[in-house]
Design a protein that fits this description.
Blueprint: H1 2-24, H2 54-74
Helix pairs in contact: 1-2
């Protein structure tokens, strides 16, 4: 059963890391869009915008910390 717990920890760690990368590398709303310099066309929302919120960011940080703590305590 130890193998399943380790796989679950690794999966949660990597999923949280992906969410953090999406949050940290988002460039929405920064700068001028070259194809829309006059501002006529509004920016369409992305399907990943729900991942770019503050609660999701802090939740992913908490998951990474919890995975690290669980890994250390399980050894």
């Amino acid at each position: 059963m130890y193998g399943f717990k380790l796989v679950a920890l690794i999966a949660l760690f990597f999923l949280a890391a992906i969410v953090l990368l999406i949050n940290l590398t988002s460039m929405r709303g920064q700068g001028i869009e070259p194809s829309d310099e006059d501002g006529e066309n509004p920016v369409r929302p992305s399907r990943l915008d729900f991942l770019r919120t503050i609660p999701v960011f802090y939740g992913a940080c908490a998951v990474i910390l919890a995975c690290g703590l669980a890994f250390i305590l399980s050894r």
